[in-house]
Design goal:
Layout (H helix, E strand, L loop, with lengths): L7 E7 L9 E7 L2 E6 L3 E6 L4 E6 L8 E8 L5 E8 L2 E8 L6 E2 L8 E6 L12 E5 L3 E8 L4 E10 L9 E9 L2 E9 L3 E8 L2 H6 L7 E4 L8 E7 L2 E8 L3 E7 L5 E2 L5 E2 L1 E8 L14 E4 L3 E6 L2 E6 L5 E6 L13 E5 L4 E5 L4 E6 L6 H7 L3 H6 L4 H17 L3 H8 L8 H11 L2 H14 L5 H25 L9 H17 L5 H10 L3 H10 L3 H10 L3 H8 L7 H13 L1 H10 L9 H9 L9 H12 L5 H12 L5 H8 L16 H10 L3 H10 L3 H11 L1 H9 L5 H18 L4 H14 L6 H4 L13 H40 L23 H4 L13 E3 L5 E3 H11 L2 H16 L23 H13 L8 H5 L35
Antiparallel strand pairs: 1-30, 2-3, 3-4, 4-5, 6-7, 7-8, 8-9, 10-11, 11-12, 12-13, 14-15, 15-16, 16-17, 18-19, 19-20, 20-23, 21-22, 24-25, 25-26, 26-27, 28-29, 29-30, 31-32
Helix pairs in contact: 4-5, 5-7, 7-8, 8-9, 8-10, 11-12, 12-13, 12-14, 13-14, 14-15, 14-16, 15-17, 17-18, 18-20, 19-21, 20-21, 21-22, 22-23, 22-24, 23-24, 29-30, 30-31
């Protein structure tokens, strides 16, 4: 212990606390409230929290000398119980901090109360709740008092000692709320026994249950007149107890959660019990018993004479002796007693006149060393205040384990030492002892204790640990060489541990150094494992391929983090190793470019395969073409080449006939190279495929010629494909016909009949005369008689049809002539009041401005005009102006240009006054003026501007044209001042 610092200090609190009302006989404290009893029956209350003090006389009205036997204050300082004794017997009083006068507890008259147990968990300022009182005749009573009632609620007798009667000298109570009710823990002491009571329910039911069961007690020899029982309270819960008995200080921990049942039905809540004998407190041979005691967290304060000895509860050693500054008249007298204020954390001592305060100054500061000296390392660590203290605990544990040759345990403790011993010193210890396993354990534990900021040290230690692991693995292999075929459990365990270490340290280990170590020790599997952790997938895949484990390699390649380039790099090896699994993996991989797989697929395809074996490359290419809709010509060409090499050309023909771009706008029907396909099919002698390719390339003559070598039916089908070119189609059929005629065998007549039958298949495209040159010169005409007659009949039918068509044309021409003749005689009747649809002037009015319009011949005194079948009439110049204004700009320019040309040529027009052509042959010749007038009439008078499409198109035009936007501003109404307004009178 550090003797330079005192844990407990003594200060004089009040010199003459009895205020002349006798001498102090007893004292109690709680929550900075001190209550003392005097020899003349007075109770004096000091409230240091508010600085208040008052006293009251309990001897008033009682005969003879009266003295306060005991005073009790609750932990909150609000409730006080006091017992006064004298010649008239004993009486117990209750008073509240707010009362001016105490109240006597009449049912306790004649009983001397030695001890009180407060219900610390439930007591309030206004109510005491359940309180247990222990009397001098061995009885326990329960009372409850509410401050507002001014009297006790009830007083019940709970229990009475019958077996060995004796006074109750100390009493403590604790409660715990459980799901099925409140559990009470009560501990009481007599001069020789310590009793324990517990149960669930009410206090009355708990003590009533002991009528049928035995009370649990501890009996110690010897008897002490002032037996005491104390609980140390921490955070409002009792932690440990101490009993001042005749044999010594019996103490232990309190565990109110313990449920260890005894056969008698009681439940023990005391643990770690011990007895501190008084002989340890005496320097000589005489044993002196303390007269009073108090309990702190780690110490006992024992009052012996006029001194207080502070004894460490754990080490049972006296650490301090407290002296009191007593008055001259009190020196001859000892200190009367000690009491504690659990709420304020203070202790008090008192003699007949004075009150002393004992303060605690960090009593747990040296407890780590106390526990360490007792080799209670866990408790020592729990009480350490700084890393240096913890280092001392760890070092002592480590040295002890190292001395006992428990190196693995020592390594764990050495790893926790930070300041006292250096890293190098510790490692040299294990190296000198030849304990590689312990050294490895130390390094691993050291890694756990390092912070993330120690990156360099972490990397170095991790690398060293890696090498130690590899050395351990090799040593195990050397020891087990040839011993058994299967690896031992130790080997498997160290491998598993090493891999876990690599997994945990992958981010701190240097990649190149670690791989070099693994390779140098020949640990290929661990090298692959570490490469996988570091995402060096190329090494992993290469290893699996060398081992022939294609499936594992493909599983690695399927990981999202693996670069897609590795798929292309290892594709040749993988497809050669396991084509099925490789192709399945390709089909399951997204974003794979099949074009980059072509070298691997060509290498695989170049190798011989069984006839019935599924061609995996074809399967993958079909997947690309049909499922992925791949448009790469290389893929299509490769698939076509593989189809061409198969014995059955069905797949090849289906591939050639498939339209891959179908449904797409302007999409091609195929993506392979037709010239390459043709060369390949010719090389592989796939003639039907060649015919299809020729046809697809519009080389129909070559297609038919080649088809005739394979199958005439195929040639006919190819000839029928040409529909838009009749000459070519006939030419192709002639090729087929010539082949059919020349290839037919048998008699001549049969030959001719087959040729005639062939003509019927052409649907009239070929006639008998077309194929006659293909027959031999010596063929008889009788053999063709039937065919020739049939051909002549067809010609006759055609001639008759032509005649009918000519007659229909003649009748149509006559009708047209009649219509033209009638059209020249058509006229319209104009009313004299008819108005022009544009200018609203009368059509038949003589006007100088209109009489001679340029380009037109005036009719008498009238201006030229147009009359439409709907009845609307327009002056010619009005109609031109209206149409040019309403039509498009280009059409308007066209009309004005025609009108200008017609005006220039108007003087040479040779027409009569009505504008009708004369019967003069010379005049009937169409002149340029007539052509221009006809064009102008078509442009402006093809339909009525009011009844035709021109009027409909005007609906979408705005009322205000863009070129008229400047007029909008002129329509705005601008405000004027009153002074500038003028009054206009309108004459009606």
């Amino acid at each position: 212990m550090d003797q330079g610092r005192q844990v407990f200090t003594v200060d004089l609190l009040e010199r003459y606390a009895a205020k002349g009302r006798g001498v102090i006989t007893c004292m109690a404290a709680g929550n900075d409230v001190i209550v003392i009893g005097t020899s003349k029956g007075w109770v004096i209350r000091h409230d240091f929290g508010v600085g208040d003090s008052f006293d009251f006389d309990l001897s008033a009205g009682r005969p003879g000398e009266q003295s306060i036997h005991r005073v009790f204050v609750d932990p909150g300082g609000s409730h006080c119980i006091a017992t006064v004794v004298g010649s008239g017997g004993a009486e117990t009083y209750y008073t509240h901090a707010r009362w001016n006068k105490p109240r006597v507890l009449t049912k306790l008259k004649g009983l001397v109360v030695n001890t009180v147990a407060w219900n610390r968990q439930m007591i309030t300022e206004a109510s005491t709740k359940e309180v247990i009182l222990g009397t001098d005749n061995g009885q326990l009573h329960e009372i409850a008092v509410d401050e507002k009632d001014k009297r006790e609620k009830y007083i019940k007798l709970l229990y009475e000692l019958t077996e060995i009667p004796g006074p109750f000298m100390g009493l403590q109570m604790e409660t715990a709320n459980l799901s099925n009710g409140t559990r009470y823990y009560v501990m009481a002491v007599t001069p020789t026994r310590l009793y324990s009571y517990t149960g669930i329910g009410s206090l009355e039911s708990v003590f009533a249950s002991y009528a049928n069961r035995q009370v649990h007690f501890m009996e110690l020899p010897g008897e002490i007149p002032n037996s005491e029982l104390h609980f140390f309270i921490k955070q409002r819960r009792a932690v440990h107890f101490a009993w001042l008995s005749g044999a010594g200080i019996y103490h232990g921990g309190l565990n109110f959660g313990a449920q260890h049942s005894f056969p008698n039905g009681d439940e023990n809540f005391v643990e770690n019990k011990a007895l501190l004998g008084y002989s340890k407190l005496s320097e000589g041979s005489d044993t002196v018993e303390p007269t009073s005691m108090a309990v702190s967290e780690f110490h006992f304060l024992l009052l012996i004479g006029n001194k207080v000895k502070v004894v460490n509860r754990i080490s049972e050693q006296i650490i301090e002796e407290l002296q009191f500054d007593q008055t001259s008249e009190s020196v001859s007298r000892d200190i009367i007693g000690l009491c504690s204020d659990a709420t304020a954390g203070l202790f008090y001592a008192y003699d007949h006149n004075s009150i002393f305060q004992v303060s605690v100054n960090d009593e747990g500061r040296d407890m780590w060393k106390v526990y360490l000296d007792m080799k209670e390392y866990a408790a020592s660590l729990a009480n350490c205040r700084d890393p240096l203290q913890r280092d001392q605990v760890y070092l002592l544990q480590a040295d002890a384990a190292f001395s006992s040759r428990d190196f693995l345990r020592a390594s764990s403790f050495y790893a926790k030492v930070t300041y006292i011993l250096s890293f190098e010193e510790i490692t040299l210890k294990f190296i000198s002892a030849g304990e590689q396993d312990a050294l490895r354990t130390f390094l691993l534990r050291k890694l756990d204790n390092l912070t993330k900021d120690d990156k360099c040290q972490i990397t170095m230690i991790s690398t060293w640990a890696t090498e130690l692991y590899l050395d351990k693995i090799n040593r195990i292999l050397l020891e087990e060489d040839g011993a058994s075929e299967s690896p031992s459990s130790e080997y498997q365990s160290i491998i598993q541990e090493f891999r876990a270490f690599l997994s945990d340290s992958k981010d701190v280990l240097d990649e190149a150094t670690t791989m070099k170590l693994l390779e140098g020790y020949g640990r290929v599997e661990e090298l692959v494992y570490f490469a996988n952790l570091k995402e060096q997938y190329e090494i992993v895949i290469h290893h699996y391929i060398q081992q022939g484990e294609a499936k594992k390699a493909l599983e690695v390649l399927m990981k999202p983090a693996v670069p897609i380039d590795l798929q292309y790099k290892f594709a040749p090896d993988l497809i050669a190793l396991d084509a099925y699994e490789t192709v399945e993996s390709w089909m399951a991989t997204k974003n794979l470019n099949p074009r980059k797989m072509i070298p691997a697929m060509m290498r695989y395809s170049s190798e011989p395969h069984a006839k019935n074996e599924t061609h995996e490359v074809i399967k993958y290419l079909e997947f690309c073409v049909h499922r992925l809709h791949n448009e790469d010509p290389g893929i299509h060409n490769l698939l076509l080449s593989l189809y061409a090499k198969q014995e059955d050309d069905g797949a090849l023909l289906r591939f050639l006939q498939c339209k891959f771009g179908k449904g797409r706008e302007n999409g091609p029907d195929f993506f392979y190279d037709p010239k390459y396909a043709l060369r390949l099919c010719l090389k592989e002698k796939r003639m039907r495929a060649c015919v299809h390719i020729y046809s697809m390339m519009s080389m129909h003559e070559e297609a038919v010629a080649l088809a005739l070598q394979v199958d005439p039916e195929l040639a006919m089908a190819e000839a029928d494909k040409v529909e838009d070119d009749e000459e070519l189609r006939k030419k192709l059929w002639l090729m087929v016909a010539k082949h059919v005629v020349q290839q037919e065998k048998g008699t001549k007549r049969e030959n001719i009949r087959k040729a005639i039958a062939f003509l019927k298949e052409t649907d009239g495209l070929l006639k008998i005369e077309d194929i006659l040159p293909f027959f031999p010169d010596f063929a008889l005409i009788d053999d063709f008689k039937e065919a020739i007659c049939s051909s002549l009949e067809d010609y006759n039918k055609q001639i008759e049809e032509l005649k009918e068509e000519m007659n229909d044309a003649t009748h149509g021409a006559d009708n047209i002539r009649n219509d033209i003749s009638a059209l020249t005689q058509r006229y319209a009747v104009i009313d004299r009041d008819e108005e022009c649809g544009a200018c609203k002037r009368k059509i038949l009015v003589v006007g100088g401005d209109f009489r001679m319009s340029r380009g037109y011949t005036s009719v008498g005194p009238m201006a030229p005009f147009y009359v439409f079948p709907c009845g609307h009439s327009f002056h010619s110049h009005c109609l031109i102006a209206h149409v040019t204004r309403c039509t498009s700009e280009s059409q308007a320019e066209y009309i004005l240009d025609l009108h200008k040309q017609l005006s220039l040529l108007g003087e040479g027009a040779k027409k009569d006054l009505n504008g009708v052509m004369t019967d003069d042959p010379v005049a009937s010749i169409i002149t340029p003026t007539d052509k221009l007038r006809a064009k102008l009439d078509d442009a402006i008078a093809s339909e009525c501007p009011f009844c035709g499409e021109l009027m409909i198109s005007e609906i979408s035009k705005p009322f205000i044209l863009p070129e008229e936007s400047h007029q909008v501003s002129s329509w705005e109404i601008k405000p004027h001042t009153i002074s500038t307004q003028r009054s206009l009178s309108l004459t009606l």
